[in-house]
Amino acid sequence: PFWTIVPSISGTRFEWERGRVFEHEAGMLFEHIVASAKNAHVLSVTQKEGSKPRPLPLNTVDLMKVCSSQLKIGPHYAMQLAERLYIHGHISYPRTESTVYPEHFDLVGTLKIQRNSSLWGDYVDSLLQKGIQPPKKGHDAGDHPPITPMDLVQPNDVGADEWRVYEYICRHFIATVSPDSKFYKTKVMIDIGGETFKASGKRIISPGFTLIMPWLSQKDEQISDFKDKTSYPVGDVTLHEGKTSPPDYLTEAELISLMEKHGIGTDASIAVHINNICVRNYVRLDANTRTLIPTHLGIALVNGYHKIDPDLVLPTVRSHIEKQIDSIARGVATFDDVVQHSLENFLRKFEYFIANIAKMDQLFEASFTPLASTGGSSLKTKCGLCKRYMRFIPMKPSRLYCPTCEETYNLPQNG
After folding, report:
1. Interior angle at CA 320, CA 317 and CA 321, nearest 5
2. How far apart are CA 144 and CA 59, in angstroms?
3. What is the pLDDT of residue 160?
4. Can you give the pTM of this predicted structure?
5. H helices within 177-295, ranges in order?
6. Quick one: which of 244, 204, 166 has its CA closest to 1?
7. Nearest 5°: phi and psi at 88?
8. 216-263: per-residue pLDDT in tens?
9. What is the distance between the alpha carbons of residues 102 and 140, in angstroms, rounded to a whole number?
10. Which of 128, 172, 164, 125 is nearest to 147 (CA)?
11. Can you name the residues that pair with 49 across neighbouring β-strands?
């Protein structure tokens, strides 16, 4: 557990600059010091204009992350939906790593197609009248342009899930040529009994692109009007207790980000990799939170690889191969040399793995019991201590025997 001091001055709650302490006695001491002070002295009041930038043009990885986190659509299914939209001419090619439009891309013409939309047509008209903003320049992978709507689709023209993906693609594109969201930010620093506290407020000046992406909109954060170098009476002082918590399981969107960071897979294969570990029961997907929960099988498999050859499950293996392929594209290495080196490397790894496969068997035996070793009976039950299957001994007196715990459990006779 940890403790932090939260004072209230003129109706505004302040955050302790020290952060938090991990001893209750220390927290109580600081609480006494702050509560004993009669006045809070304003050290500084700063105001400046800030902005929330409009999004970069949309690529495949970002589309998959948004579909998972916002639309609750898995990446594999999301790409199937995007491909259907592409085949019917509703969007551009959905597999791209680029987040920058070609120099002569017709942004205005593409935007005009959306003027007749019943949902965002009025916004598009207003945007065209005021003039569009140039999209922010991202990464040019030299493959395909960012994912863009190519015609106007109404909700009843496509399936429900296809519409949700199409709607997001449209709103994202319109947002890329919209103004940034702007606001004024106020920061107040105060001193109470020698301890420094801070509070921040925000006032929206112009919502900008968040009008078309309302889930990203910002709200005003009101604080009292403090004057620099002025004192104010101290209100309530609270010693707040909290607890640190371990990180949660990875979500699909977080895993996609990490795969992109470490070079595991491409825009065309990331969704397939995630789908494979679900289908093979290495992880279990929580449909509500889109978190990926490792199964006993997945944990045993990864631990087994770590015991034999950690390189096989570290992200550097796949990223190294991707870098070698990239070196071919850049002309630094030849195709034959890269293929030959990779084959020789993985052949040695395969031979070493086979020679040490017993280590993998040991881990699987610790987590799973072969049904054949339970005596071949239709009676299948697990030991209450180690959770492994027990053997049924039919000879009288009939009993259950756990070879791991070496425990025997008698069964009712003649029952």
Report:
1. 90
2. 9
3. 95
4. 0.80
5. 252-262, 270-279
6. 244
7. -85, 5
8. 999 999 999 999 999 999 999 999 999 988 999 999 999 999 998 888
9. 9
10. 172
11. 184
Q: What are phi and psi of 237, to 5 degrees?
A: -125, 120
Looking at residue 204, its pLDDT comes to: 96
Count of residues making up the chain? 415
Taking the chain, what is the end-to-end CA distance rounded to the nearest angstrom? 54
SS3 for 305-330 is: HHHHCHHHCCHHHHHHHHHHHHHHHC
| Token code pair at residue 184 | 């004024």
Q: How far apart are CA 341 and CA 321, in angstroms?
A: 10
Q: Across the strands, what pairs with 15?
A: 198
Instruction: Give the pLDDT score at 276.
Output: 93
Give residues with Cβ within 8 angstroms of 51, minimum separation 6. Answer: 180, 181, 182, 183, 208
Return the structure tokens found at 128.
Answer: 């065209």
Alpha carbon of 94 to those of 103, 143, 154, 169: distances in Å? 20, 11, 20, 10
Tokens of residue 335, six digits: 């195709």
- Does 93 participate in catalysis according to the annotation? yes
Confidence of residue 374 (pLDDT cuts 50, 70, 90): very low
Say if residues 102 and 95 touch (Cβ distance below 8 Å). no
Place of tokens 């990490």: 258
Phi-psi region of 316 (alpha: psi -120 to 50; beta: other; left: phi over 0): alpha
Please tell me which residue in 86, 93, 249, 282 is annotated as part of the active site: 93
Residue 130 phi/psi, 5-degree rounding, is: -80, -25
pLDDT at 343: 93
What integer pLDDT is reported at residue 199 of this predicted model? 97
